Amino acid sequence: MAVHRTTTSKINLAFAKDVDEGLSKAFKTLPSRYFYDLRGDKIFQEIMHMPEYYLTNCEYEIFMHRAGDLLRALQMNGDGFDLVEFGAGDGYKTRVLIKELLREGADFRYVPIDISGDVLAALKWELKRDFPDLEVETLHAEYFTALQNLREQSDRPKLVLFIGSSIGNFPEERTKAFLAALYEKLNAGDQVLLGYDLRKNPHVILQAYNDAAGITKRFNMNLLQRINRELGANFDLGRFTHYASYDPQSGFARSYLVSLQSQEVSIKALDKYFHFAEGECIHTEISRKYTVGQMVAFVEEAGFRLKEHFYDRRTYFVDTLIEKAP
């Protein structure tokens, strides 16, 4: 495969730095956040509609049937609040929650936060089409930067959504650091709805990350294609495959890209070659599955007060409401 030409002015320097550091390690890694370019966003939307990927349907079900219970648990008493979402994406599930909250008479402004400006622009247009009376303010920024700015602009109570089991993509120490930082950025009385995947039959979990149609494989392979496109690399996708695993004792599902042969890969933007031995792996993602007790221990350690759990009918998934106590 030919090396794609690129120029320094067009290089995402953070992306280049993270790729360099990750591929230079003894055990190679690539950060999962770089899955989500324009092409990756579209593939992930396919993943959310896969029959094996139960997570989306479980949370969709919770929002469809428990929105009224959630609103009562919030105890807003008719007061207006900001519905803030970290990593809003295309808002597929959140639209259900918005629809049901509006049906229940809730007074709120929706504030989606995402690092993809294109995704936010599309989401805002679609929401204004579907909910013309809904106030929507998009924030194109990192989560905590956006939350700090919002805190300075508005003293309305906040319900922060961190859903879709996104917290499962963090290693344990980062989970604790994330929750501690979130606690510090909120005002007393602000609340968080934290969605996470629960431990269950390991075969059910593994199939969600190793689907028969190969969509998850395409999602992972797109990361190599992105490096080719943006950094001028010459990854030959035919020389790599995707491998997923799940350890039911630790609760960790892991994804890897595996080199099928001994090979050298050039990355023009880094002016480097990287060697891959046959069978060598690039670790791309973790998705941790929790018990409720484990997550409750984390949120309480960060200072939050537990309010209520909302489960799907199969108890595969839970959205947990927590609060920074007044």
Care to describe what's here?
The protein has 326 residues and is an alpha/beta fold. It is 40% helix and 23% strand. The chain folds into 2 domains: 8-30 and 232-288, no CATH class; 54-198 and 290-323, Vaccinia Virus protein VP39 (Rossmann fold, 3-Layer(aba) Sandwich). It has a 7-stranded mixed sheet. Strands 6-7-10 form a 3-stranded antiparallel sheet. β11 and β12 (317-323) form a beta hairpin. The longest helix has 21 residues, at 54-74. The termini are far apart. The model is unreliable at 1-9 (pLDDT under 50).
Brief overview, please?
The chain has 326 residues and is α/β, with parallel strands linked by helices.
List the helices and strands and how they pair.
Layout: H1 13-24, H2 38-48, H3 54-74, E1 81-86, H4 92-103, E2 108-114, H5 117-130, E3 139-140, H6 143-153, E4 158-162, H7 172-185, E5 191-197, H8 202-208, H9 215-231, E6 240-247, E7 252-259, E8 263-267, E9 272-276, E10 281-288, H10 292-301, E11 305-311, E12 317-323
Parallel strand pairs: 1-2, 1-4, 2-3, 4-5
Antiparallel strand pairs: 5-12, 6-7, 7-10, 8-9, 11-12
Helix pairs in contact: 2-9, 3-4
Summary keywords:
3-stranded antiparallel β-sheet; 2 domains; 326 residues; 10 helices; 7-stranded mixed β-sheet; disordered N terminus; Rossmann fold; globular; alpha/beta
**Number of helical segments?**
10
Helix-strand string:
HHHEHEHEHEHEHHEEEEEHEE
Mean pLDDT: 93
User: Strands of the largest sheet, in order across it?
Assistant: 3-2-1-4-5-12-11
**What portion of residues belong to β-strands?**
15-25%
